[in-house]
Amino acid sequence: MRTVVESDIRFIRLWFTDVSGQLKAVAIDPGELEAAFSEGLGFDGSAVQGLTRVYESDMLLRPDPTTFALLPNQGEKVARMFCDLLTPEGKPALSDPRGVLERTLRRAEEIGFSVQIHTEVEFYMLKQTSDPLAIEPVDNAGYFDYVARGGSNDFRRRAVQALEDMGISVEFSHHEAGPGQNEIDLRAADALTAADNIQSLHTVVQEIALSENQMATFMPKPFIDYPGSGMHTHISLLEGGSNAFYDPAGQHRMSRTARAFIAGLLRHAREISAVVNQHVNSYKRLWGGGEAPCYICWGHNNRSALVRIPLYKPGKGQDARVEYRAIDSAANPYLAFAVLIAAGLAGVQGRYDLMEEAQDDVWQLSDSERAVLGIEDLPHSLKDAIDTMARSELVAATLGEEAFDYVLRDKVSEWNAYRAQVTPWELRKSIRPL
After folding, report:
1. How far apart are CA 427 and CA 423, in angstroms?
2. Are 25 and 15 in contact (CB under 8 A)?
3. Is the pLDDT of residue 56 over 50?
4. For residue 378, what is the DSSP state?
5. How many CB atoms lie within 10 A of CB 311?
6. Interatomic CA distance for residues 256 and 259, integer angstroms
7. Quick one: which of 52, 127, 344, 363 could link to 261 by a disulfide (CB 3.0–4.6 Å)?
C-alpha cells in the first residue's frame, strides 16, 4: 500500500482465472485497496464460467499481495495482483482454479515436498487481416532462425523486457520451428508462481502483439502443415532444501522418488489428458506430427517420449527434473499443474514401478512393437479424453467436485459443438462439380 502511494499508481487490476482458464479482471481505485485486503471485493460468481451456481452467486476476491507488480506499457501507472476466490463466509471457494493448485501444493507439503516448475511456452505470431479466419504467419523463418529486421525479433525483445519488468525471470527466447512460431522459456519458480507467470505471459504477449499490429495465438494447432504449440513443463520436487529427484548412484542420476514420480505421470497420463490438453484442437497437435508426444513412455533425452529426463551439467544435481511434453500452451495452468503434481505424487506415495525406458524413436515403431514394449497411446480425441477422465478418482479428488463437474460438462459441450460443424475439408471432399 505504501508503494501504491509513493509510486502514484492510478489503478489496480485484480486478476483471477475461471475454470476454463480465461483470465478475468476488475480494476479498483487505490483507495479501495485496504478494504479489498481486509474484507475482499464482492462480485457475482455465477456470471463467471464454472465458479458457482446462480442460487449461491455471491463471491469475494481477495488480492494476494505477494503477486503485486506494475503492468508495463499502460500509459498511466497500473498495477496488478492475482486474487484468491472466497465464499461470503471468507472460506476458499472450491471452484477457484488457483485454489485447486494451492490445495494440491499443501498436500505435497504434508508429505514433505515443495514443487518447482519451469515452462517452455510456444505460440504463433500472425498478421492482422480483415478476415480473422484467414490466418497467416508474420514470417517464414524456422527453428532458431534470426529474422533480419523482422518484427518477431523486436517483439520478443519487448515481451521479455516487459516480463522482466514485472519480476518474471526469462531464461531465453527464440524462433521456433514453424513460420511465425516463437518460444519464451520462463525460469523455475514455485508451482503457484509459475502458474501466475503463465497467465501474465499470455497477457503481455497478446498486448504487445496488438501494439505491433499483429496477433498472438496460443492455439495448440493453428496450421495443418506446421508444428503445434506445446508448453513443455519441467517439474522438480524439493525435500528439505535438496532436490528429491537427484541420486548420483541412480540410473541417469535419478532417485527412487524421481522414478516413482515419473511412473505416476505415465500411469495417469490418459486420465489427466482432458485437463492438460483441454480442447478439441489439442489432439490435432498430439496426433498431427511435428514431434508432439502421443505415446505413453519415458526416456533419457528422448524427445519422442511423453516424459523426458533432460541432461544437466555435472555437479548440478539441484537441476534434476522431469519434463512432461504433452501439455499445450492453451491449458489452464492452475488445473494442469495440479493434476500433473497429483499424478506424480500418487506414484511416489504408491511406490509405483517404472516401466523400461524407451530407447528408440517411438514414432517409428509399429503398433505391434509398441504393444510388446507396453507403450500405450494418449487419447486420440477430446471425447476419448473426457470418457477416461470421467472415471478418474485421481482427477476428481484433485479438482474437487465443483471444478471436476464443470470441466466435464464444459468439455462435453465443446465436443458436441465440434461434432455439429461442417468443415471446409468435408465440403471439398464431398461436393464435386458436374
Report:
1. 7
2. yes
3. no
4. P
5. 9
6. 5
7. 344
